[in-house]
């Protein structure tokens, strides 16, 4: 048998590299009432409508660990008196983009990553949230591209939130660098929603554990 043919057969028989992907899921859309609520909320985020947002925020919304809860404190924290420059819209918009799941206790959570049962170590794991994100050999766009990450779960070797690049390891053991903007930690911001007195409200908007 020719060596080239033997190599081709061996490669064909070899198991494919292990990949763990976790694309967003949306089980919340099955509830027509919540679907209509979320559509209105997404539109409010697009137009940076602080008045609408505060109208759907729960009186006792949780938004920090150990801090003062409540709508007024939430508004101060996110600078909603200056809605044009508030960082809230980008953050909440990203969460709403990344799926939604029910918690089994009449509540819904976005993004769906937060509720995933596949996460062994939420603080050491990140998800490549932009399909086509690149794994580079070094921190920089000019470095070689080692792989393309499409909703891949990767291990963060050492998380540095101030750095534009993070060193990560894929499930099959390859190490490289991914842009921080392409990664999301399961412990990052998430939004919780619950029906109160017949109306959907945002009851939680928090990061960490």
Structural overview:
By secondary structure, the chain is of the alpha+beta class. It has two domains: 28-117 and 187-206, Nuclear Transport Factor 2, Chain: A (Roll), CATH 3.10.450.50; 122-184, SH3 type barrels (Roll), CATH 2.30.30. The chain is built from five helices and twelve strands. The longest helix is centred in the N-terminal third of the chain and has 16 residues, at 32-47. The radius of gyration is 21 Å and the shape is globular. The relative contact order is 0.17. Mean pLDDT is 88; it is low at 3-17.
List the helices and strands and how they pair.
Blueprint: H1 3-13, H2 32-47, H3 50-56, E1 57-62, H4 71-77, H5 88-97, E2 101-102, E3 107-110, E4 125-128, E5 133-136, E6 145-149, E7 153-158, E8 165-169, E9 175-179, E10 183-184, E11 190-196, E12 199-206
Parallel strand pairs: 1-12
Antiparallel strand pairs: 2-3, 3-11, 4-7, 4-10, 5-6, 7-8, 8-9, 11-12
């Amino acid at each position: 048998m020719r060596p080239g043919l033997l190599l081709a057969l061996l490669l064909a028989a070899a198991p494919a590299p292990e990949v763990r992907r976790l694309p967003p899921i949306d089980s919340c859309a099955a509830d027509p009432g919540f679907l209509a609520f979320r559509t209105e909320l997404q539109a409010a985020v697009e137009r940076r409508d602080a008045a609408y947002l505060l109208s759907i925020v729960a009186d006792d919304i949780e938004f920090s660990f150990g801090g003062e809860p409540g709508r007024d404190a939430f508004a101060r924290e996110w600078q909603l008196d200056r809605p044009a420059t508030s960082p809230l819209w980008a953050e909440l918009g990203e969460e709403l983009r990344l799926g939604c799941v029910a918690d089994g206790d009449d509540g819904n959570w976005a993004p769906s990553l937060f509720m995933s049962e596949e996460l062994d170590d939420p603080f050491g794991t990140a998800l490549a949230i932009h399909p086509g994100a690149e794994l580079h050999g070094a921190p920089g766009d000019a470095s070689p591209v080692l792989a393309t990450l499409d909703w891949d779960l990767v291990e963060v070797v050492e998380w540095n939130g101030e750095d534009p690049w993070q060193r990560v390891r894929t499930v099959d053991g390859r190490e490289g660098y991914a842009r921080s903007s392409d990664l999301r930690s399961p412990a990052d911001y998430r939004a919780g929603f619950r029906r109160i007195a017949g109306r959907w409200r945002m009851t939680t908007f928090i990061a960490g554990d």
